[in-house]
Each structure stands twice: as structure tokens, then as C-alpha cells.
Write a structure and sequence with these properties.
By secondary structure, the protein is of the alpha/beta class. It has 12 helices and 8 strands.
């Protein structure tokens, strides 16, 4: 018992000293944190850079800024105005459905779409199509603009930078969309016209793939832009040439090949589609099931008439 009493008496002072040491340490830590500023973390550089007049942004149109293909929506509007027959409408519907289901732009397929459009506008006045295009934008395109991509474009505009659409769609259609969105302008496929009337031919080739990169280079040289300070946005692997020439490439609603390419190179990704299916195969969910179903039905009807 004596030994136990001795051990107990020795333990008590040790416990008191431990409490005192702990309190002192806590008080010192509080004083230290109050006197020493927290360590600074490296902030991500502001982008887009406000006031950088040598920077600009270039946006692909189809499935990047707008759900679906602009040329298809334009074709719907022309059909409504009796520019062509139901057979051509069914063809446009099938082309649009394929575009949505595949989620990628096949050059041969897109060329077929453009050939159809050129044959339809042949012989019509440019001024007439521009006027109709304004109406078609309100009817079929305005509600199909991706809000997320629109916000990206606005961020560049708010920073005092110029913003262009770069698309294989007709330059007239692209110009209307750019103006309605408050953008600087548009680069697009140029259809030949003589005396203000479409001939049904193109000037050069469609603005697709490498041609987009060349157009951006030419515009940058003319406008005094530094491409290393510029940004480009697209959903398609066909636009890798355009994305590769700027300092800030973005993959927006990317197809599978572009997504892989972007991840390998550390490019930024933005996906404004919703739902697992949309992310997997590239169908813009916000476009609604009706648009796809309607296009499919039209294609089936066309197939039955051919049998």
C-alpha cells in the first residue's frame, strides 16, 4: 500500500504538467496563426484576359454553340416556305437524325448535306435568303443555343475580346446567328453568286477541317491577333487543326475522338449535354426526343416509298 501511495502521488503532478504544457502549446499556436499570414496558393491566371486586344475566341457552330446542324434547321425553314418538296425534307430529316445519333461530323455526309442545300437555293437572290434566314433563326434556332457555350462567348466579349463563329454552314446563315448572339462576326462556307443570285456552286471548298484552321490564321493575320493568346471551341475531332493553332483550346460537348485527344494533351473540357446517354453517344438531350423521333419517322417513310 505504501508503495502504491508513493506511485499515485508521483503521477498527479505529471498530469498537471501535461495539462499546462498542452494549454501553453495551444495558446502559442493561436498567437502564431494570428501573427503569420496564411501561405499563398498560386492562383490560376485570369482567363479570358480583360483588355487583351490581341486575343480573340473562335467558336464552331454545330453541336458547339447550337444543338444540331444549322443547315438542317435552315432547310426546315425553307421547306415551310415551299422551296422544295417533302422528299427533300425527308432527306434533310434523315441527315439530321444521323448527325445526332453519330455525334460526329463525317466529311462525306456533311458534303451531301451542303450539296442538297446548294441545289435548293440555286437561282434565288442572296437578299431573299438573308431575309428568310432572320425568320428561320427565330423559328428553329434561337431555342437551340447552348446556354453554357453562350456564356463562354459572352465572357470573351465582356473581356473586350472579339468573338467569331467558324463553321461549314453558309456564311450568310452563320452571320445571322453571330449577329443575333451579339458576336463579332462569322467565318463560313461561301456560296457563289452572280448579280446577287446563287449559282448553286461554292467558292473554293466547304469551310471544314483544315480549311477552318486556314481561315482562322488568315483572319488573325488581318486583325493583328496573337493566336497563342486566342481560344477556340469545338465539339468535333474534325476541328483539331483549328484547336491546335491557338493557345487555349477547348473541347465542348466533344465526340469520343476529340475527348480522348483533349485529355491526352491537357485541353480543357466542357460538356453541356445532360444525361448519361447524351454524354455517351453525343445526342443533345435538351433537343428533346421529338426531334430525333420525327427525323427517324421521316426517314422510314422515305424508305417505304422507295420499296
Amino acid at each position: 500500500m505504501a508503495a502504491l501511495g508513493w506511485f499515485t502521488r508521483r503521477r498527479q503532478p505529471a498530469t498537471e504538467r501535461s495539462v499546462l504544457a498542452g494549454e501553453a502549446s495551444a495558446e502559442a499556436a493561436r498567437k502564431s496563426s494570428a501573427e503569420t499570414p496564411p501561405p499563398q496558393t498560386a492562383a490560376e491566371p485570369e482567363f479570358p484576359v480583360v483588355g487583351d486586344e490581341q486575343a480573340a475566341a473562335f467558336f464552331d457552330l454545330d453541336n458547339t454553340v447550337m444543338q444540331g446542324a444549322a443547315i438542317f434547321h435552315f432547310g426546315r425553314g425553307l421547306y415551310k416556305r415551299h422551296f422544295f418538296r417533302k422528299r427533300e425534307l425527308a432527306r434533310f430529316a434523315w441527315q439530321q437524325t444521323w448527325f445526332r445519333m453519330a455525334g460526329v461530323e463525317d466529311p462525306a455526309h456533311m458534303e451531301d448535306v451542303r450539296s442538297s442545300a446548294l441545289s435548293i437555293v440555286k437561282g434565288h437572290r442572296v437578299a431573299e435568303l438573308m431575309s428568310i434566314g432572320e425568320e428561320i433563326y427565330d423559328e428553329y434556332m434561337a431555342d437551340r443555343i447552348w446556354p453554357g457555350t453562350r456564356a463562354l462567348a459572352q465572357a470573351h466579349l465582356d473581356a473586350g475580346q472579339r468573338v467569331w463563329l467558324v463553321t461549314a454552314a453558309p456564311v450568310e446563315t452563320a452571320t445571322i446567328i453571330a449577329r443575333r448572339l451579339g458576336l463579332t462576326g462569322a467565318l463560313g462556307t461561301v456560296a457563289e453568286s452572280v448579280g446577287g443570285v446563287y449559282t448553286g456552286k461554292l467558292v473554293g471548298e466547304p469551310l471544314h477541317g483544315p480549311a477552318k484552321a486556314e481561315a482562322v490564321r488568315a483572319l488573325a493575320a488581318a486583325e493583328g491577333l496573337d493566336l497563342s493568346r486566342c481560344a477556340a471551341y469545338s465539339d468535333s475531332s474534325n476541328d483539331i487543326p483549328m484547336l491546335s493553332i491557338v493557345g487555349h483550346p477547348y473541347a465542348v460537348n466533344p465526340d469520343g475522338q476529340l475527348r480522348k485527344h483533349a485529355r491526352e494533351r491537357g485541353w480543357r473540357l466542357r460538356d453541356y449535354r445532360t444525361g448519361r446517354k447524351a454524354a455517351r453517344i453525343g445526342i443533345p438531350a435538351a433537343a428533346g426526343v421529338g426531334a430525333v423521333a420525327g427525323g427517324t419517322a421521316a426517314a422510314v417513310a422515305l424508305h417505304r416509298r422507295r420499296r
